[in-house]
Specification:
This is Exportin-6. It comes from Eumeta variegata. With 798 residues, the protein is mainly α. It folds into five domains: 142 residues; 149 residues, no CATH class; 117 residues, no CATH class; 68 residues, no CATH class; 109 residues. Helix content is 74%, strand content 0%. It is built from 42 helices and no strands. α3 runs parallel beside α6, α7 crosses α10 and α17 packs across α19. It is flat.
Length: 798
C-alpha cells in the first residue's frame, strides 16, 4: 500500500486511500514501539525509519485538511523524542522532520486545538526531560538538536498565540523550559566554535595580516586606538558567551594561554637572545591578549554554582594565579624586556597585562581559596617598579604595578601588617614620588593610604599614625612648592575616598586639616590668584568627601567663598565655589542664609549668562528653597525681619520664574522640578505670597510653553501639564472663571469671539482629563491665531 501511494498519479485516488494507509503505517510503528517497551528486544528500526520517511514525504505535499488523525501526529512525535534517539538517530530525525513538515504546511484539522495541545504536551515532556537530564542534551546529535530547535520555532510561531486561550495550556511553564533549553543547548559546540572564532580573530598567530592593519597609535575621542577598541569589543563578546558557560569558556582560553605562557617561559630561559623571531613576537603579543581576556573573565568564572563545576572553576583560577604570580616574581628579578632588543615592547605588554590580570583576580582571592602568602607575594613583584632607579622603569609597567598594589590594598585580607610589606615604598612616598608620572603617583598614594587605613581598623592605632604621617608629608610642601604643585595630588586623593568608611574619613579629615587651613588662607590672597583653579578644585573635593567631618571649618570656609566670589574670578571657579556652598546648605548647620542669598542675587545671577554658570546658580537657589524653607517663615521674629525675609523669598521666586523663560531646556527642567518639590514638601502653591503674587504669572508662562510647537520644551510637556494642574488645583473655579479669560485676553491675534469661545473651559478636575482639555485649548488657540494671521475669521471649533 505504501508503494501504491507513492506511485499513484491521481490525487483523488491517493487521498481516498489515505485512511487505510495511515492506519497501516501507524500499526507498524506502534508495534515496534510496543515491542521496545515490553520486551526490550532489538527493534526493526529499518521499518520504522521507512514509515517515518514515507510520512514525512506525504506530509510535504498532500492536502492535509482532513486526512491526518491527531493520534498519528502523537505517534510520529514519539519517534522524534530523545527516548528513541538513543536507539536510532535516523528514526528520531525522521520523526521530528515529519512533525516539522506538518507545521510548515500550517496543518489545522477540525480538532486543531486538541492536536496543538497534544503537541504542546509532547514538547513540554521532551523539554523537561532534556533540562532535568543534561547529559542527554550534551550527548545528543547536533543534527537532532537543530531539528528540535526548528520544531520549537515553528510550534511557537504558529500555535502559541492560539494555545494561550486554552485553560490546559501553561504558558509560563512552557516558556520557562523553552528558555532554559535555548541557553543550555547553546553551551555546546556552537558556543565553543564562536569563542574559538573570536580568539582566532584577536591572535596574531591566526590573523596576523588583518591585525597588523589596525592603527595602534592614533587615539579617538575616548582615548583609545583602533586596535584597543577592536580588542575591547572582542573580549566583551567572549565575556557575553562566558555568561552562559563560564567554566567551559575560561578553560578554552586558559588552554591557549598555557601554550603561549610556555613559549614565554622558554624565551625567558634564552636570556640575552637578540635574534628577531616573528613567531615568538606573535606568541608574546597573543599571550598579552589572552592574559587580558582571563582577567576580564574573573567575575564571570565564579558564577558557577553547581558543586563540582564550582570546585573546578576555583581550581582553574588557582592554576592561573599561581603561574602568573610565579612569572611576575621571576620578571621582577630578570627584567626580560631589558634583555631583548627585538621583543622589548611585546614583553612589556605581557608584563603589564599580567599585573592587570592579578589586580582583577585579587578581588576573588578569598572565593578561590588562594593562600594569603601567594597574594602578599605579589607585593614583592610589583614594588621594584615603583622605586627610583638609575635606569627609569617603563611608565606602562609602573602604572600597572601601582594598580596591582591598589587592588591588593582594597581586596585582600592580610595575615601580617600590610604596611610592613611596602616599607621601602612607604618611606619613599613620604620623601617624594616625583620619579613616577603624576597619574601613577596618585594611584600609589591611594594604595598606601588604603593599606594604612586597613591596618587602623584593627584598633591598634598604628595605622592611624601611618596614615597621618603620609598626609602630613604630602601636605608639607604646600607653603614652599605652592598650591599648583601640591594640591592636585591631594584633590585626587580626596575624590578617591569619597565612598570610604566613616572611620577612615575621620582619620583623613584630621590628617588634611592643616593643608585645608593653609589653602583657605591662600584663597584669600591676591598673590595666589593664579592658583584659584587648583584651590577651588581642592575645596570642592574636600566638601564632597569630608564635609561631615571638618566641623566649623566648613562654615568658616563658606564665608570665605562668599567673599571670593564677590571679587570676580573665572566662571569655572565660580561654579566650584557655588557647588561647595550648595553642599554646605544641604548639610545644615551654620551656613548664613542671608549672605548666601546676597551672593546669589547680587553677584552670581548677573554672571549667569551661559548654561555652565546658570545651572549651578539655580541649583544653589533650589537647595536654599528646599532645605532652608523655614528660614523664610520663622516662628518668632520682629515685623521688620519678617518683611525682609518675605522680600528675599519674592526675589528668589522671581528668579525661578525668569529662568522658565530661558531657552536652556535643562535650566527649564531644573526649575520645574524645584517648583514641584517645593509644592510637594512645603505646599508652595497654597502659600498666600505665591497665590496672590506669583500663581498667575507662573501659569501664564507654563501655558505659553504648551503653545510652543516643537523645540526642546515639547519633551517636557507632561511635566509642564502636571505643574499647571497642581497650580490650578489651588482653586479650580478661580482658574476657569478668572484666570483663563484674563490669560486669553492677553494673547495677541485672538478676537473677542475667539476669547468667548475658548473661555468655556470644561469643569473636569482629574489630572488625565484636565491635561487633555488644556492641550485641546492651546491647540485651539494656535488654530484661531493662524486663521487671524491669514486674515480669516475662524469658525467655532467643535
Amino acid at each position: 500500500m505504501i508503494t501504491i501511494v507513492h506511485g499513484h498519479r491521481n490525487p483523488i485516488g491517493v487521498t481516498s486511500a489515505l485512511p487505510v494507509s495511515w492506519g497501516r503505517i501507524r500499526y507498524l510503528m506502534e508495534e515496534n514501539e510496543d515491542d521496545g517497551r515490553e520486551r526490550g528486544a532489538s527493534l526493526d528500526m529499518e521499518i520504522v525509519v521507512k514509515c517515518l520517511t514515507t510520512l514525512q514525504h506525504l506530509f510535504s505535499w498532500l492536502p492535509l485538511s482532513s486526512h491526518v488523525p491527531p493520534s498519528l501526529v502523537t505517534t510520529v512525535f514519539y519517534w522524534g523524542s530523545t527516548a528513541t534517539q538513543s536507539q536510532s538517530t535516523e528514526a528520531a530525525l525522521a520523526g521530528l522532520g515529519g512533525v516539522c513538515e506538518l507545521l510548515y504546511r500550517r496543518y489545522a484539522p477540525p480538532s486543531s486545538a486538541t492536536t496543538a495541545l497534544r503537541l504542546h504536551h509532547c514538547a513540554l515532556r521532551l523539554l523537561r526531560h532534556l533540562i532535568h537530564s543534561p547529559h542527554h542534551m550534551h550527548h545528543a546529535h547536533h543534527d537532532y538538536l537543530n531539528k528540535l530547535a526548528e520544531f520549537l520555532r515553528l510550534f511557537v510561531s504558529l500555535h502559541f498565540k492560539r494555545l494561550e486561550a486554552e485553560p490546559e495550556f501553561d504558558a509560563i511553564e512552557f516558556l520557562s523550559y523553552l528558555f532554559q533549553f535555548t541557553f543550555q543547548v547553546s553551551t555546546g559546540e556552537a558556543l565553543r566554535a564562536l569563542v574559538d572564532k573570536v580568539l582566532n580573530k584577536i591572535q596574531f598567530q591566526h590573523n596576523k595580516a588583518q591585525l597588523q592593519q589596525l592603527d595602534n597609535d592614533t587615539c579617538d575621542d575616548d582615548g583609545e586606538t583602533e586596535w584597543q577598541t577592536f580588542l575591547k569589543h572582542c573580549i566583551e563578546c567572549i565575556a557575553r558567551v562566558a555568561d552562559l558557560a563560564p567554566l567551559d569558556v575560561f578553560t578554552l582560553v586558559l588552554d591557549r594561554w598555557q601554550c603561549m605562557a610556555g613559549v614565554h617561559a622558554r624565551a625567558a630561559g634564552r636570556s640575552g637572545a637578540t635574534v628577531a623571531d616573528d613567531r615568538l613576537l606573535a606568541a608574546l603579543l597573543d599571550l598579552a591578549t589572552l592574559t587580558r581576556v582571563l582577567g576580564r573573565l574573573a567575575p564571570v568564572l565564579l558564577t558557577e554554582e553547581e558543586g563540582e563545576r564550582r570546585a573546578a572553576a576555583s581550581s582553574a583560577a588557582a592554576v592561573l594565579v599561581e603561574r602568573v604570580a610565579g612569572t611576575l616574581a621571576g620578571a621582577a628579578l630578570t627584567r626580560p624586556h631589558r634583555q631583548s632588543t627585538h621583543h622589548a615592547h611585546a614583553l612589556l605588554q605581557v608584563h603589564a597585562e599580567m599585573f592587570a590580570c592579578m589586580g582583577a583576580w585579587c578581588r576573588y582571592a578569598g572565593e578561590c581559596g588562594l593562600p594569603a602568602r601567594l597574594m602578599e607575594g605579589l607585593f614583592t613583584s610589583a614594588l621594584p617598579f615603583l622605586m627610583p632607579h638609575d635606569i627609569p622603569e617603563a611608565p606602562l609597567l609602573c602604572h600597572a604595578a601601582a594598580h596591582l598594589i591598589l587592588s591588593l590594598s582594597k581586596n585582600v585580607k592580610f595575615t601580617s601588617d600590610p604596611v610592613s610589606l611596602v616599607d621601602d615604598l612607604f618611606n619613599q612616598a613620604q620623601r617624594s614620588l616625583l620619579h613616577l608620572e603624576p597619574k601613577t603617583g596618585g594611584v600609589v598614594r591611594e594604595a598606601l593610604l588604603s593599606l594604612a587605613l586597613c591596618r587602623s581598623t584593627g584598633g591598634s592605632g598604628r595605622g592611624e599614625a601611618a596614615a597621618r604621617a603620609l598626609l602630613a608629608a604630602w601636605s608639607a610642601p604646600l607653603t614652599i612648592a605652592g598650591p599648583v604643585i601640591t594640591l592636585p595630588p591631594l584633590t585626587a586623593l580626596l575624590l578617591a575616598f569619597v565612598d570610604a568608611a566613616t572611620h577612615a574619613k575621620k582619620i583623613l579629615a584630621e590628617g588634611i586639616q592643616g593643608a585645608a587651613e593653609t589653602a583657605l588662607q591662600m584663597l584669600c590672597e591676591s598673590a595666589c590668584a593664579a592658583a584659584e583653579g587648583e584651590l577651588t578644585d581642592f575645596f570642592l573635593a574636600l566638601f564632597r568627601c569630608l564635609l561631615q567631618h571638618i566641623g566649623p571649618f566648613a562654615y568658616a570656609a563658606i564665608d570665605v567663598f562668599l567673599q571670593v566670589v564677590q571679587r570676580g574670578g573665572s566662571d569655572a571657579s565660580l561654579e566650584r565655589l557655588l557647588e561647595c556652598v550648595r553642599l554646605g546648605v544641604e548639610a545644615g548647620g551654620g551656613v548664613r542664609v542671608p549672605a548666601v542669598l546676597q551672593l546669589v542675587t547680587q553677584h552670581a545671577l548677573p554672571r549667569a549668562h551661559t548654561p555652565d554658570v546658570a545651572r549651578p546658580v539655580y541649583t544653589l537657589l533650589a537647595s536654599i528653597l528646599i532645605h532652608r524653607w523655614r528660614y523664610f517663615f520663622p516662628i518668632k521674629c520682629d515685623v521688620g525681619e519678617e518683611a525682609r525675609r518675605m522680600e528675599e523669598l519674592r526675589g528668589v521666586l522671581a528668579a525661578v520664574g525668569r529662568a522658565l523663560l530661558e531657552p536652556d531646556i535643562e535650566l527649564f527642567r531644573l526649575n520645574l522640578k524645584t517648583l514641584d518639590t517645593l509644592n510637594t514638601k512645603w505646599k508652595l502653591y497654597h502659600k498666600v505670597i505665591f497665590r496672590s503674587e506669583f500663581l498667575a504669572q507662573f501659569l501664564s508662562v507654563l501655558l505659553a510653553s504648551v503653545c510652543e510647537r516643537g523645540g526642546g520644551r515639547a519633551l517636557l510637556r507632561d511635566e509642564v501639564l502636571a505643574a499647571i494642574h497642581a497650580m490650578a488645583a489651588v482653586d479650580f473655579l478661580a482658574f476657569r472663571r478668572a484666570f483663563l479669560p484674563h490669560f486669553l485676553s492677553s494673547l495677541s491675534d485672538l478676537t473677542p469671539q475667539h476669547i468667548a469661545l475658548l473661555s468655556e473651559f470644561p469643569p473636569d478636575t482629574d489630572l488625565p482629563t484636565f491635561t487633555q482639555n488644556i492641550q485641546r485649548l492651546m491647540n485651539d488657540v494656535n488654530c484661531y491665531r493662524e486663521y487671524t494671521a491669514h486674515g480669516r475669521i475662524a469658525a467655532p471649533l467643535a
